[in-house]
Amino acid sequence: AGMHAMSRGMLTISVDLFGRDVAVPYGADICDRYSDFTQPVLDEVRREISTVGYRFISFVLPVHTTEAFTTGGCRFGGLGQVNGALTWNVAYIDWPESRPASRVVMHEWGHNLGLWHSNYLQCAVGAQPVALAARADRAAGACQRHEYGGEWSVMGQAPGPSITAGERRHLGWLRDGE
Predict the structure, then answer these.
(1) 3-state class of 154 per DSSP?
(2) I need a surface site. Which of 12, 28, 104, 156 has the fewest CB within 10 A?
(3) Sign of CA dihedral 48, 49, 50, 56
(4) Can you name the residues that pair with 57 across neighbouring β-strands?
């Protein structure tokens, strides 16, 4: 529903659930080793269902937040490939309500559809904040880039299903006259 809302009806995603667990042999370090078992897990899924016709496939790793951050495991909410076919989504069982798992899924699917992180630059020249910095000032380090800093996009810090006009243009979701 979130992707449909962001596209304002220009994208509909059908979701099919592969309703069973796939055993992963690597134990507690699953989040550090996800790339080691991506292909074996995908092969297991393909043995049971055809993945032909799917734009991308999302794997879900159920993890307890407290375990993840105390054992050094999953320190990410998801991993998506820009224009890729695979997404890993960590389903934190005790995830804070202020950052719903559905937002993480939308963010990672945004990568699969071709979007990068929504960042922003914070610039200061002579210790004074400036809205626009000259190219020479930017090259001299007057600006600091904040990854995930964009406040108006789910690809940055937006709490809900929203993306910027530039992202809509990139995805072909702008309506006539916009």
Answers:
(1) coil
(2) 12
(3) negative
(4) 86
